[in-house]
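Worked problem 6 (solution included).
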Amino acid sequence: MSANADLLGRLLEEALIDLLRGALFDLVPTAMPATFDWDRVDGMLLGLAIGDALGNTTESMLPAKRRELYGEIRDYVPHRRWKSVATPTDDTQLAFWTLDQLLLDDGLNPEHLAERFSSERIFGIGSAVSHAMQALRLSGRPWYECGAASAGNGALMRIAPMLVPYVRSPSTLLWTDTALSAIVTHNDAASTSACLAFVAILWRLLGMEAPPEPSWWRREYVRLARDLEGETWYTPRGGPFADYHGPLWRFVDKRLTAAEAVELSTLDACEQWWSGAYLLETVPSALYILARHAGDPEEAMVRAVNDTKDNDTVAAIVGAAVGALHGASALPTRWVEQLSGRTRADDDGEVQRIVVRARECWGRIG
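Solution. The predicted structure is:
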């Protein structure tokens, strides 16, 4: 038993983490096939950064307004104020600081990760992350008591790197580390269950030879998240489904089943349930885009960027998934070559350097 497993056990026992100990925690991830190529991990990581960079300069615009100003976005858009392109927001920063810290510590030390987040300048920081970082700096409480009780998407957007150290050495500790990493900023059942489910989905995608059939995305998410989140109580922020009360996983199941039945476009579907930074909007948006477009990495990310409001985060999540499924070599060359790779204001190429270090550290066979 690792120190992290002991800690998670105590947090669950003392109800200091908003999560159920679902069946996933006892599941050893399936070993990657003999044909596995680390290009798939590179694709997951670069897909996340590219999705963020494609969306961040038009983040929070309603799709109709974005289209009025820019037409259909298929490449990086200069920032309205800085006139730069392919720049990072908190999605890329927190994801790649996570991976960098995993490299520095040879695995997850959640206290070090919390200290890293709280000591850096975060671009476009969300309210829940800001709340958690302020608590870490000022409250004197341990890191695991500082995560915000928020169903925002700020943990989900950065969680993909957690599986990288385990790709060559599958272990149930992957789920422990994912849960602890998630609650550094968001201690919430919908958030942590979504993080665990997404990491498990990414693991499956890395080993797939072809895209899954469309309903797989919904079914797999619900199967994984249901006994981790349980019967929680969330409500939409408004819109046609404002009378819903219940867990995120059930909302995802209901809304995606209905959208699939009539083959809604991604734009129409995401406008129905909205597509902001709330998990009842982000999760169904990302899953539905993947259900319809996972076979085409470019189109999946273009739809995420154009058809959603919190488009940098939805595109980062979608980008990680299609990158894991298809590999870095399948991502558009122009996007890869023009990515600034910043995690700070002026560290061009840092994302790419961290990706290379991760490959060197954990990508070797044997």
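Discussion: The domain at 39-362 is CATH 1.10.4080.10 (ADP-ribosylglycohydrolase fold).
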